[in-house]
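Q: Predict the assembly, please.
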Amino acid sequence: MSQRSTASPDTCPSQKVPTAAPRPTVDENAVPTPPPLARIHPSPLTQACAATREAYDGSSLTFRLLRACGWGAFLNLGFFRAVDWILRPFRLDVAQERLAKRSIELLAIKGARDCVDVACGRGRSSFRIAMGNPSANVEAIDFLPDNVSAAQFLYGNTRNLHYRQGSAESLPFATESQDRVHCLEAAFHFDRAAFLREAYRILRPGGLLVVVDFNFKTEDSRAVLSSPEGEIVRDIWRFEDFWTTDQYREEATYLGFQAVEEHDWTEQVTAAIQRRFSFICWAGNKKPLRRVMTLCNPLLAGFTPGDWQTLRTHAAALDTVRHELRYVALVLRKLA
Ligand SMILES: C[S@@+](CC[C@H](N)C(=O)[O-])C[C@H]1O[C@@H](n2cnc3c(N)ncnc32)[C@H](O)[C@@H]1O
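A: Predicted assembly structure:
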């Protein structure tokens, strides 16, 4: 298992040591300061950003298995239906397209002019937004140059869509220049407080932010990250921490957002993919079942018995951690 590497400012433009800004105290004589400069939940996770690439470059066995099941244009876990077990047991890409569709629907983009897709990965979600809304101007950014190149190559020639490399923690857009901000399954990689603050800054009053992310169920859930299973999962996914939904709401409200919708997709996303992943990793360790699975999906022939053993360990660790998580879509409105 590879170790998380240490970020250097040269390789990671978004890295900065989080500075804990205390919540302002009430002083009747003081000139009020704008809330977006303050942070309630500074998080130490920006250290992880230089290592992010290793989650997506195929060096992790878990991600190689996801690739063999359709992961590629999208880099998310997908939104599953029960019938997918029968119709498409190895078609992650179909579930991913469905997840993006649901997330983009929450943007309620009709009539909006300017939209940003933050951490767009290989660009498929941004392409969906742009093609479905020809009168909108869509800007898409991702931290990893490899992902931005892939997005440009696949979908670059789209009239109302523009990709660029950048960080969610320092968005390269003017203040109050956007109507919508979309961020699908990526905020766990970066400093969420900085991202919320930036999203608030670039949105016009009344604009919407949709952020879909893993949330801890409770504060106590955080303990799982210190366990050996937590260490394995952090190494696979390259993150340091999650927030609870309360933390999200609290920070967002403090900045001046109003939480207008909250959707719990745990059952259809994290629970659903975990069941499939655990089953495939279990079956991969039984020779006759491995043969059957390889007949259904010939790409699985590329995994050795040793790989299957490691994958089973990964599956067990992921299962332990995901029991402490909710998969939540939040819609936040910048108050006018
Ligand atoms: C799980 S993928 C999701 C990608 C895409 N939203 C999708 O659904 O396919 C997370 C993405 O976050 C990007 N990322 C990580 N840290 C980032 C940062 N600080 N700023 C912008 N993007 C970042 C990664 O490069 C990766 O493409």
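Residues 1-49 have pLDDT under 50 and may be disordered. The pocket of S-adenosylmethionine is lined by residues 14, 49, 52, 74-76, 119-121, 125, 142-144, 147, 167-169, 184-186, 189-190 (CB under 6 Å).
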